[in-house]
Design brief:
Blueprint: E1 2-6, H1 12-21, E2 25-29, H2 33-40, E3 45-46, E4 58-61, H3 66-73, H4 79-82, E5 88-91, H5 97-109, E6 113-116, E7 119-120, H6 123-127, E8 131-135, H7 139-144, H8 146-152, E9 153-158, H9 163-193, H10 198-206, H11 213-224, H12 234-251, H13 256-270, H14 284-288
Organism: Mycolicibacterium neworleansense
GO molecular function: NAD binding; NADP binding; oxidoreductase activity
Keywords: NAD, Oxidoreductase
């Protein structure tokens, strides 16, 4: 397939590289030209504009937030204006359900198709093509872009025809991950202050009732106090918790834990931890109990 790829951050660069490895023709655009050059060395065609990346069958966007997606999608030189009739925009960004609905309508009006396909997995999973893809859109369109999902992930979950449903599920999943980070951090602070080795404690947890990737991954980061280099920035963690709260407000679903998590992320950001991995939020309790600040 001829695929445009917009957004070569921690996740996007690896996803685009795996599309190349799967034999697809990839044209890449990123605000930082150096990242485009690195992918071009692997065989991608560099694009100097969003419009130039939208000349194929599909364009995939993997960007940080609603503002970034809106900036490349709308306007005279955005994806909607540049994409040909019948082509597909696949958004793998974690965005609000409201923006997903707006994108669905704008592409339909332009005679294009839109599929929401956010992913679960950290950069190492993206590099290994082991992401979990959560997709939603018109069945024929989802089927047509399935080769994209097969190149970047180990399994795709299709949630129906409404793209915003995929974004809501992604938001809910990130809320759950943040909940695990906070609760793990509290538990480790409790046993750690009593002198229990945190790595030994994690081994006990993951060898018994908590043998799940989210406990192993984030428990390991917390036990090792390994919050840099950043896999997923704390600023993005705050953004996703706020998306959960916004969705809850819209649907009239109270999310009291999400409110707590918002405040915990705000504490981390206020004390200089915004560029740390979001797992650093779980280290706040140990700091508040007399330990060192997450760094």
């Amino acid at each position: 397939m001829r695929i445009g790829f917009i957004g070569l951050g921690n996740m996007g660069a690896a996803m685009a590289a795996n599309l190349l490895k799967a034999g697809h023709e990839v044209t890449a655009y990123n605000r930082s030209p150096a990242k485009v050059a690195a992918l071009a060395a692997e065989g991608a065609r560099p694009a100097t504009s969003v419009a130039e990346a939208c000349q194929g069958d599909v364009v995939v966007s993997m960007l940080a937030n609603d503002d970034a997606v809106e900036a490349v999608t709308f306007g005279g030189h955005g994806i909607v204006a540049a994409l040909s009739e019948g082509a597909v925009h696949v958004s793998s960004s974690t965005i609000s359900t409201a923006l997903a609905e707006r994108l669905t309508g704008a592409h339909a009006e332009a005679g294009q198709s839109f599929v929401a396909a956010p992913v679960f997995g950290r950069p190492e999973a993206a590099a290994a093509a082991k992401l979990f893809v959560v997709a939603a859109g018109a069945p024929a369109t989802v089927a047509a872009v399935t080769p994209v999902f097969e190149a970047i992930g180990q399994r795709t979950f299709v949630l129906g025809e409404d793209p915003s449903a995929a974004n809501l599920v992604k938001i809910s999943g990130n809320f759950l991950i943040a909940s695990v980070i906070e609760s793990l951090g509290e538990a480790m602070a409790l046993v750690g202050k009593a002198g229990v080795d945190k790595q030994q404690y994690l081994e006990l947890l993951t060898s018994t009732l908590f043998d799940a990737p989210v406990y192993r991954t984030y428990g390991g980061l917390l036990a090792r106090e390994e919050f840099s280099p950043t896999g997923f920035a704390a600023t993005l963690g705050l953004k996703d918790v706020k998306l959960a709260l916004s969705a809850g407000e819209e649907l009239r679903v109270p999310l009291p834990v999400a409110s707590l998590l918002r405040d915990r992320f705000l504490t981390l950001l206020a004390t200089g931890g915004g560029e740390l991995d979001w797992s650093a939020m779980g280290a706040l309790t140990a700091w508040e109990a007399g330990g060192k600040a997450p760094a």
